[in-house]
Design goal:
Shape: globular
CATH superfamily: P-loop containing nucleotide triphosphate hydrolases
Number of strands: 15
Distance between the termini: 26 Å
Order of helices and strands: HEEEHEHHEHEHEEEHEEEEEE
Structural class: alpha/beta
Strand content: 15-25%
CATH architecture: 3-Layer(aba) Sandwich
Number of domains: 1
CATH class: Alpha Beta
Length: 342
């Protein structure tokens, strides 16, 4: 479709008067974690196994629901059954264990959480059947019609749980298949005004070893994902996650201190312009509350969920372990020219 300038004059006037508009924030301040989610766009998140990709995205989805009322469709068979996924969501919302025990939520807290989660989350149960990307779109559309709701996000976690469906134009090649389906994934987001999300594993990383004998995988690049260059080309917001090993030090200055719950969040690509900022940011996982926080001025700062369980806890921590959440142009795991897709 070709459009003349006069056909977008209204949009141009709005852009000139209001500037570039960010997406919906995810609970942390723009200065500490400049990531927003915009309707009709996509996010791809990559990391090695057991880094916490699902924990990270579920936290974001809950925060989007708390702050903006967003509704989500989730396909995450690796996380467990729908029962187990809902239990995880209930736990992350309240910040306490779902299963009975010393740190379990109360019955009143469970009831509160179930009302909230039931309103905002829907889980796809494949029932041991193959699910293709077209099946995923169809289920999303059918649920919106049948339930009379509108999904703001649709999550595939992880990508390799979908069944590949090659067509003649793919020539049997994975790169051509991936290029086609990710193009369609982006188009589906624009058509439905949803924010489509994919979690993907990285592969073929060389194992490295610390002086203390610890083996670990290095900070991944989007190119470490299967078909990495294609993900770069087709992606809008592209985030890589990494958990540095205990004992690791920054090879640039040798002064890095690693905590055992530390997560490095690397925004490797950010489009449309202004929705996020490329860079590297630190977060920490509270295993007891099952929620992430940042360290700011000696405080554990959790996501601002408005009137939904907002917490900011002051703790004493060693000065050298405080996070400089934005580390642009500081060290080796920064977004550099080699990582840029253009």
């Amino acid at each position: 479709m070709i459009k003349k300038l006069e056909e977008v004059q209204k949009d141009l006037n709005e852009l000139r008067n209001n500037g570039i508009q960010r997406g919906s924030d995810i609970g942390w301040s723009w200065d500490s974690l400049p990531i927003t989610f915009k309707p009709a766009s996509t996010t791809y998140i990559g990391a090695a196994p057991h880094v916490g990709k699902t924990e990270f995205i579920l936290e974001i989805l809950i925060n989007l629901s708390c702050r903006h009322g967003w509704k989500h469709l989730i396909f995450s068979p690796e996380t467990g059954t729908p029962t187990e996924i809902y239990a995880e969501l209930l736990s992350k919302y309240i910040g306490k264990d779902f299963i009975q025990g010393e740190y379990a939520m109360t019955q009143m807290e469970r009831a509160e959480a179930e009302v909230f989660i039931a309103e905002h989350f829907y889980i796809i149960d494949p029932v041991d059947e193959d699910l293709t990307i077209d099946d995923f779109y169809r289920l999303a559309d059918e649920w919106e019609i049948n339930e009379g709701i509108k999904f703001n996000t649709a999550l595939i976690d992880p990508w390799n749980e979908l069944t590949e469906t090659f067509i003649p134009e793919d020539l049997g090649r994975e790169d051509k298949y991936l290029s086609r389906v990710l193009r369609d994934f982006r188009r589906n987001a624009r058509r439905t005004k949803r924010h489509n999300i994919i979690i993907n594993h990285v592969r073929d990383q060389a194992v490295q070893k610390l002086d203390n004998g610890t083996f670990y995988f290095p900070m991944p690049s989007p190119r470490d994902m299967a078909g990495g260059q294609t993900w770069y080309k087709k992606g809008m917001l592209l985030i890589m996650l990494w958990r540095p090993p205990l004992g690791w030090q920054n090879p640039t200055n040798g002064e890095e201190t690693i905590l055992d719950n530390e997560l490095i969040v690397k925004v490797a690509k950010s489009k449309p312009k202004g929705v996020s900022v490329n860079g590297v940011y630190k977060m920490y996982f509270d295993f007891k509350k099952k929620q992430y926080y940042q360290l700011v001025n000696d405080k554990q700062v959790y996501a601002d969920r408005g009137h939904h369980n907002n917490r900011e806890v002051s703790v004493q921590v060693p000065r050298e372990s405080l996070s400089l959440n934005s580390r642009r142009n500081e060290n080796f795991y920064e977004v550099d020219k080699e990582d840029m897709p253009f």
